[in-house]
Amino acid sequence: MEKSIPAKARLLKSEKNWMNGEVRGKIIVFLCAIIMISATIAITIFLATKGVQSFTKNGVSLIEFLTSKQWNPADPAKPLYGALPFIVGSFAVTFLSALIAAPLGIGGAIFMTEIAPSWGRKILQPVIELLVGIPSVVYGFIGLTVLVPFVRTHIGGLGFSLLSGMIVLSIMILPTITTIATDAMSSLPNTLREGSFALGATRWQTIRRVLIPAALPNLLTAIVLGMARAFGEALAVQMVIGNVKDMPHSLLDASATLTTIITLDMGETTFGSPENNILWAMGLLLLIMSFAFILLIRYLSSRRKI
Prior knowledge:
The protein has 306 residues and is mainly α. It is 74% helix and 1% strand. It has helices spanning 7-51, 53-56, 62-67, 84-115, 120-133, 136-154, 162-186, 190-198, 203-232, 235-240, 258-265, 274-302; strands spanning 71-72, 80-81. A hairpin with a 7-residue loop joins β1 and β2.
């Protein structure tokens, strides 16, 4: 005969199982958070430790690193560690690509959410997702095959230039800006639109004077995130920018960025050598700029009014 379990025992057992599941879930998510935080701290400490060795161990001047235009760390007689041309190149392609991608991305977001909300997103959303899925090496290959000859033939210069890098990067960061801007415009309450229309404003007046100012912090956040993406891009830019170690003076001049110099020179240096340590210093500078972008995004997010 089967032994029956009292109701009180079944309830206690059920509560015990639930508690076990609750505790197990908390432990899993807690471990996930610990792993993420630990990985971030470990990478930061490692990069900071390696990045400062050029200045503390090899005697490289920080002022020379940030302000000098001369770069030749492999010269045994008189090594030169001026990274200013690469810093200028990184900021130039980042800001110039944002100048192109920001109006296109925000315009596309307004089209999807305000002009053609029913069918606009069905058309543009797959296009944006396709742009996100294309690998950066493909962007670089297309730029090398199509864009560089086009610039050389129709605009001037060698084709390998800041202009080519700027165009490639603007296409690469366009999905980031468009997606976040679309979410920002979609999250605005309909009462804003209805109130504006009730006062007699046209659709364009509502967009320009009501919706864009209301979503401005989030739109700026989208632009800054796109710039952060552009600042850290290496492969596609390396294929079209020319990778020269001189200061660029125009959009048609070849240039280089911090990321392109790291990827080009890392394999030709010995681990622990001054040439290798100065590349780690460049990596540390990229990390500091990433933190600056994150702080700027946090500041813009804190200014959200809606």
